[in-house]
Recover the amino acids of this structure.
């Protein structure tokens, strides 16, 4: 029972971490151009051009 | 990868956006920085990205350039001033064209409200997914037998996780349900909103009273599933919309105004006042209605009234907005502002015609109309029944809630969008964009198709029909002259001639007449009979569907070329396929009787009407609807727009006028007219699957409701039943992808038959 006091917040925290990571990636435009990203990774000259 | 090498796309046919237009549409993003969004529809691979981005970044004025392959757009941020010079944004477009040879269009900004809603929906899905997963974890512990105090604590934690999810994710349903109720209607969202609210309230109440069963898991996972359905529906519409708005705009954004003192000034179309003089260069479209002040030209009027033959205009002739000047430059005196031009007349007609479609109620809403009163009545009966006969009102309440949760249309909420998204995906692969789901429902119902002629059944491109009877050296001479003109007949001539063509000196084009050129001491003329043969030429009397061009040498006729508007590929196959499905076809055209009649007989269409005004076309659709027919209108011109809006459902080709594309429910990108039967076919299949899904969802209720009524429904049972029914519905929808192979087979067969038919003819 005592264990739960730690475990539940930890579980919720990890879940919330995943959620916020997803929301961040959505906001920063990671899903804007999925087709383009697939091609860009194949470019040999991968300077950071943006 | 040579696919994006310069020059592979042949000559650039369309006009690139001008510098003035680019400045007008760009947006200021920082001090001295402007952002321009361009649409490059042909971008399709990694090499294209690199080619465009490197060529743009090589320009000193470019601050940032990024290609988006999914939306086929290029976003460029550029400096207004470079040193002391102002930047010419035309150089940006030129850089793209030089690097790839692709057409570039301006992308109209300000259509991002849908994008915003989509993001909010995805965020809501993420949040409710998080909540559902965590509550489900806690619920598993409860189901596996947590003792009293642990159970209570788990319930409280669940309640706290569920509350924000319900507010954040549930607001879409609450808003929609409230809108429906305020108008005295009910839709699918009413039972959804009621079920999630009541189940949450009861669960909290149970938790406070240390009850055994709480429904938080059911509430939130229900919300999660429903939001997925809602998001899919939205993604489908958004994808189609962004693909359609990426197409080139056919109406100009601005025009060159000549002021009193002769200075020129580029202004937005909305700012042109009546009485002002507008310069229209060769290849430009007329922005507002007006009268020609000086100059002559041949005007392409096909998009305005459906006439396939260009019309010669001279000083004093009236022009309508949307016409394209083919062969000469004109100065126009505006007679109306953009708001009062021909186009706005059409828009008024469209608004008047749209009444019929607004009355259409979607399948899901019609189902909800029967379903939700039935469910609510059932819950009420359960409550009263258990209350009166059982005597325990608290238990009666719990059972009523269980009935509501079990019957909450989770599967129903997914039944329609999942099928429609899969169907739209299949159509998308075949180059057909679907604007929204209700269009597919309407398309499945149609029994009559009305086609426009010019630009829809035909390509609006003339084709030489008497190639066999013309000597090849005459053709070469004609082609040599024709390369100097943008007139569609000239283009057709120069396209068809292969091999070398003679070179002419001093070719002059006389708008409305033809071309004159000099070679080897002879004067060649190519144009209408009167012009080519000089004064001794007889007046042409042919009022048939064919257009003729005469080639003369020193006033003596040497050859006569006959043209006909080229049929859209697979027109015959498409109309036969429609007939096989029991759908009758007809033609509604603004073109002359003769050309419509001959086309109708070529395609085997018995019913046709010619020389129709835009209003008459729309009235035709309305009168058919009054006779009880469901009409599909397929058209492309400005003059078709009212009919597209009036018909039960409508399809436009990608080459259609902007307004036609906006009015249509479907837009097809490929040339082949087979898109029409394919769209109908897929829509009908989708309709069948939707009904099957409804049957599945109702079948599940028939089993689950008695369990709930008997009082045996625990949260565990509810969770299992709901998830399985949702999964079954999704699996059934995915069958549409498998069905795709069989229809493709049919179209392949059709193509094969056509080829053998051709072989037989040859």
């Amino acid at each position: 029972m005592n264990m739960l006091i730690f475990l539940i917040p930890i579980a919720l925290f990890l879940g919330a971490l995943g959620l916020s990571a997803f929301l961040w990636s959505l906001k920063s435009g990671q899903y804007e151009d999925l087709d383009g990203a697939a091609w860009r990774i194949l470019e040999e000259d991968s300077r950071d051009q943006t | 990868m040579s696919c994006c090498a310069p020059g592979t796309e042949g000559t650039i046919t369309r006009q690139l956006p001008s510098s003035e237009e680019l400045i007008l549409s760009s947006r200021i993003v920082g001090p001295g920085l402007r952002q321009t969004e361009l649409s490059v529809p042909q971008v399709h691979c990694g090499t294209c990205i690199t080619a465009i981005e490197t060529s743009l970044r090589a320009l000193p004025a470019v601050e940032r350039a990024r290609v988006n392959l999914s939306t086929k757009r290029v976003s460029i941020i550029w400096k207004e001033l470079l040193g002391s010079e102002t930047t010419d944004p035309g150089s940006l477009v030129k850089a793209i064209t030089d690097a790839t040879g692709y057409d570039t269009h301006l992308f109209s900004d300000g259509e991002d409200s849908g994008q915003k809603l989509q993001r909010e929906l995805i965020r809501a899905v993420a949040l409710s997914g998080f909540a559902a997963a965590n509550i489900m974890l806690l619920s598993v512990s409860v189901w596996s037998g947590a003792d009293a105090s642990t159970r209570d604590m788990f319930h409280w934690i669940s309640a706290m996780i569920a509350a924000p999810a319900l507010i954040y994710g549930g607001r879409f349903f609450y808003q929609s349900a409230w809108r429906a109720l305020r108008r005295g209607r009910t839709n699918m969202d009413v039972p959804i909103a009621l079920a999630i609210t009541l189940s949450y309230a009861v669960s909290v109440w149970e938790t406070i009273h240390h009850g055994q069963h709480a429904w938080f898991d059911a509430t939130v996972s229900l919300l999660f599933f429903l939001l997925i359905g809602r998001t899919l529906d939205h993604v489908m519409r958004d994808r189609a919309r962004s693909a359609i708005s990426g197409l080139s705009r056919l109406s100009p954004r601005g025009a060159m105004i000549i002021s009193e003192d002769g200075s020129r000034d580029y202004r937005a179309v909305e700012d042109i006042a009546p009485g002002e003089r507008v310069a229209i260069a060769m290849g430009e479209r007329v922005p507002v209605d007006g009268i020609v002040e000086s100059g002559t030209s041949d005007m392409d009027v096909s998009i305005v009234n459906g006439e396939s033959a260009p019309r010669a205009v001279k000083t004093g002739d009236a022009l309508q907005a949307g016409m394209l000047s083919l062969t000469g430059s004109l100065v126009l005196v505006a007679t109306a502002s953009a708001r009062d031009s021909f186009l706005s007349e059409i828009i008024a007609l469209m608004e008047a015609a749209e009444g019929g479609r607004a009355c259409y109620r979607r399948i899901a809403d019609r189902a909800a109309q029967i379903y939700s009163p039935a469910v609510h009545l059932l819950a009420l009966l359960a409550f009263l029944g258990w209350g009166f006969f059982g005597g325990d009102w608290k238990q009666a309440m719990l059972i009523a809630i269980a009935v509501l949760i079990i019957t909450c249309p989770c599967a129903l909420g997914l039944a329609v969008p999942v099928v429609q998204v899969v169907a739209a995906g299949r159509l998308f692969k075949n180059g057909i964009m679907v604007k929204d789901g209700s269009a597919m429902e309407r398309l499945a119902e149609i029994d009559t198709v009305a086609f426009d002629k010019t630009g829809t059944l035909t390509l609006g491109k003339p084709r030489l029909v008497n190639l066999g009877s013309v000597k090849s050296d005459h053709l070469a001479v004609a082609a040599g002259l024709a390369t100097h003109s943008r007139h569609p007949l000239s283009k057709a001539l120069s396209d068809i001639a292969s091999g070398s063509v003679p070179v002419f000196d001093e070719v002059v084009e006389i708008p409305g007449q033809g071309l004159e050129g000099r070679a080897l001491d002879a004067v060649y003329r190519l144009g209408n009979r009167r012009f080519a043969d000089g004064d001794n030429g007889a007046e042409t009397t042919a009022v048939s569907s064919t257009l003729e061009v005469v080639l003369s040498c020193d006033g003596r006729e040497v050859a006569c070329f006959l043209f006909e508007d080229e049929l859209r590929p697979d027109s015959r196959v498409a109309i036969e396929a429609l007939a096989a499905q029991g759908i009758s076809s007809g033609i509604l055209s603004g073109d002359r009787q003769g050309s419509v009649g001959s086309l109708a007989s070529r395609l085997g269409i018995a019913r046709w009407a010619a020389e129709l005004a835009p209003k008459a076309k729309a009235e035709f659709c309305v009168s058919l609807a009054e006779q009880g027919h469901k009409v599909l209108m397929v058209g492309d011109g400005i003059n078709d727009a009212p009919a597209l809006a009036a018909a039960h459902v409508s399809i436009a080709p990608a080459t259609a006028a902007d307004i036609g594309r906006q009015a249509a429910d479907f837009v097809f990108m490929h040339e082949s007219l087979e898109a029409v039967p394919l769209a109908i076919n897929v829509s009908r299949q989708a309709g069948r699957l939707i009904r099957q899904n409804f049957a599945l969802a109702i079948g599940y209720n028939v089993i689950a409701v008695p369990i709930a009524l008997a009082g045996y429904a625990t949260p565990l049972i509810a969770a299992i039943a709901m998830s399985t029914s949702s999964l079954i519905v999704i699996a059934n929808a995915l069958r549409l992808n498998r069905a795709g192979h069989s229809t493709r087979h049919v179209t392949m067969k059709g193509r094969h038959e056509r080829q053998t038919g051709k072989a037989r003819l040859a």
